[in-house]
Write a sequence for this structure.
């Protein structure tokens, strides 16, 4: 049963669910062809990829989940909501769907979740597409202030004051770079966060982004497992959250890396530049496939 607030014209997909010990995890699985798996960040959900999916599903199989506590997934009281737990759930979904030769698309907090799977299962990952993100400890990262690190501005205030800032204001601030984001679309993000109590639980993952240094370091120690995977980086240069130094680190990391800069866009390229993103992702997949084809 879809909630009354869901705009099914904007999000016209069939809902599927995977039953986990902690609750039901919602996901969508649209189209046929080479597999593209998309992992959202916070405080987003699979809705953020809706336009990409509409554009890509005629030629690709597009899979996007809602992490527990987000979107149309359950929001249980007794789930930890820590990054490692979300990563475990994502691995369960990949095992359930038995996907191979994946193009993995990750954004924001979705990178440590999605790349944890890639680092442990590199044989299943054909390509990686990254949008404004990181996968390393932030505890000593100089692009984040000592006071807030990732939890800058309104998100940090929101989490530390437990809803002194309204959810609507939070979403408006975080999507502030998307100048033309209609209120009706913002409301899809606001409503998907649930009740005030549920919001504090699900957004606890953001508090943990600084406090999981050991787990991040564990991931980073496995980095050689993915550094040879062809990677496309799509980067909004007006990002208020993830600074350009993170991009430079990714460029140094991957052996085969292509970077597309969006000078006038911010953190949420999926909302601002969906048409261009779909074109770049499709062309990237096609070009990498050609490289793998035997010469005649």
């Amino acid at each position: 049963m879809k909630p009354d607030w869901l705009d099914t014209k904007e999000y016209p997909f069939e809902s599927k669910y995977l039953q986990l010990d902690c609750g039901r995890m919602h996901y969508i699985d649209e189209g046929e062809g080479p597999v593209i798996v998309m992992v959202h960040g916070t405080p987003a959900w699979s809705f953020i990829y809706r336009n990409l999916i509409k554009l890509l599903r005629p030629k690709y199989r597009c899979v996007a989940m809602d992490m527990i506590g987000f979107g149309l997934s359950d929001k249980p009281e007794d789930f930890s909501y820590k990054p490692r737990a979300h990563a475990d759930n994502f691995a369960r979904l990949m095992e359930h769907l038995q996907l191979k030769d994946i193009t993995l698309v990750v954004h924001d907090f979705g990178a440590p979740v999605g790349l944890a799977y890639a680092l442990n299962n590199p044989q299943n990952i054909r390509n990686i597409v990254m949008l404004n993100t990181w996968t390393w400890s932030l505890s000593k990262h100089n692009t984040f202030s000592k006071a807030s690190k990732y939890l800058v501005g309104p998100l940090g205030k929101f989490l530390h004051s437990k809803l002194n800032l309204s959810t609507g204001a939070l979403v408006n601030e975080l999507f502030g770079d998307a100048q033309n984001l209609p209120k009706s679309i913002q409301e899809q993000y606001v409503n998907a966060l649930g009740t005030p109590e549920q919001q504090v639980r699900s957004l606890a993952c953001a508090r943990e982004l600084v406090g999981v240094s050991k787990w991040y370091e564990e991931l980073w120690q496995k980095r050689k497992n993915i550094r040879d995977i062809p990677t496309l980086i799509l980067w909004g240069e007006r990002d208020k959250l993830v600074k350009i130094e993170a991009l430079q680190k990714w460029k140094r990391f991957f052996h085969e890396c292509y970077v597309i800069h969006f000078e006038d866009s911010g953190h949420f390229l999926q909302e601002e530049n969906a048409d261009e993103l779909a074109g770049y992702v499709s062309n990237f997949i096609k070009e990498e496939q050609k490289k793998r084809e035997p010469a005649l």
Remarks:
- The two ends are 52 Å apart (CA to CA).
- The longest strand covers residues 125-133.
